[in-house]
Amino acid sequence: MSDTIIGIDLGTTTTEAAIYRDNKPEMILNFDGQIVTPSVVGLDESGNMIVGEKARAQYILAPERTAIEMKRKIGTKKPIKLGKESFSAVELSANLLSYVKRYASQYLEEEITRAVISVPAYFDDIQRQEVVEAGKKAGFVVERIINEPTAAAMSYGIDHMEEESYVLVYDLGGGTFDVTLLEMFDGVLEVKASSGDNRLGGKDFDERLIDWLRTRFEEKHGVKIAQNVYAMARLKEQAEQCKIALSTQEEVTVRIPMLAEKNHVPLALEETVSRKQFEELISDLIERTHQPIHVVMADSGIGRGELAMVLLVGGSTRVPLVTQDLKEFLGIEPVTEVHPDYCVAQGAAVCAAMIGEQLEDGLVMTDVNPYTLGVRTVDLYNDDIMSVIIPRNVTIPVTKHDTFSTLYPGQTVVDIEVYQGESEVASRNHFLGHFLLEGIPATTRENEKLDIAFTYNINGMLQVEATVLSTGKKANLVIDLMDSGKEETVDVSNWREADCASAYRSIIRRAEKWLRQNEKDEERSEDKGAENARLEELLYQLKKAILEEDEDQADELADEVEEMLDE
Ligand SMILES: Nc1ncnc2c1ncn2[C@@H]1O[C@H](COP(=O)(O)OP(=O)(O)OP(=O)(O)O)[C@@H](O)[C@H]1O
Ligand SMILES: [Mg+2]
Q: In CATH, what number does 202-283 get?
């Protein structure tokens, strides 16, 4: 396998890749000679998959077979429709990553197979696993998942190895807000705490502007356009451009000829938006960034006065109100030294170089583990206890151990089961693996003491070692969290082809219709979102059962779907 590892920033709106060579990160150009690739995937007229700029250009013409912002659907199991076909966010992200793999291979003139991929610090385990899955589907060996703000800080840290300070990374991108507090000293970057909001970004600014423009247009002309996907796609594109222009201009006029028609007369949208008006539309969204900042400061016990700098990351930090708000809120001028669009990919490339041992100066980076790790233990009253060895949010790499004893004298074997999660009941957590510690001496009259040590390294690898204290006998287990088994999602889009499909057609059609109608409400209410997600999961299971010709299971699931719809 080649030594080359690239870093990839798989963003909500844009994707970038970088490589560390000649002692610095270098951005990789795509087939169009561009650094930035739109995170857009679609099917063209003949049903071929298209990716990046081509797909983005198609969006206003054919939004129904173009997928944008897939990253927001990662971890939700929500199907994404392209024309008549249905895809998962993992599959579409895999297409995007496979495009990156191809252009990086061309640019670097060698077959690229290894990558470090960044994710929002706030992504949970399932979301992270899905990103790894997408990477694998694209043909990558995913060497590491790195948190985006940590990557951003690394791209800064690599040039500022000697400085000492607390740094706040404020990353407001297209779809997610991440904030991370790090300590920098002597080439060491230590993450103190991370927080954020997985549903806050430039996309939300766009939506406020879209709503505002749409309402004005509808009131002026007495037509409704919310259901018109073509009109809405054009409006979205123009609203985003208007927002971007307002970052440098005080006032912008949006003109969209023939946005809709009334009695066969084409209607144009023409509206002037001032920066002030725009700021009023989004001020509460910007205020929502304050809470996660409070959280990371409190968690790491650092006061505002101790913060030395704020790194701005993500395209949405170009909105002047963001900088202004931060200045007022934190009392410091944010640093603009890192490139907000490139630094995450650059940091991922620095991380890749660290893994490949290509860094000359020793930059050391530490992160925190997002989830609790432990073993299942048993006492007289309870046989399913989660005994914590490494608590969550502890700085990694880390080694911790604890002493346990055998259940009864004479016991020669212990089965050690390892779990990850926050429940006190072991089996409710995510099972990572198990191993046997054998050859415990049966001679003593007392219970044998055992030491169990967990080492969690920077690559997300957990090593567990158990030792019989009286004899020193050891047994161990290495768990690659990047590889830990998760049920594969199967493609169920061709369920209609199964023999028993006809019996379920009508219920599935009803459910899908219901889902479509609810998509809109969902944006507004969390409950609706959960409901939809449950129904989608049921539908997925139902289609899977149909494909497996498991009619008993399918009947049961169909009843459940029916019940939900009746509610
Ligand atoms: N000059 C600008 N002014 C305002 N917003 C901008 C500007 N340039 C880009 N944006 C917005 O920044 C967002 C994209 O930022 P970025 O590329 O950092 O996000 P991403 O990495 O794709 O998303 P995420 O990190 O949330 O997954 C878009 O919403 C875009 O409209
Ligand atoms: Mg980003």
A: 3.90.640.10
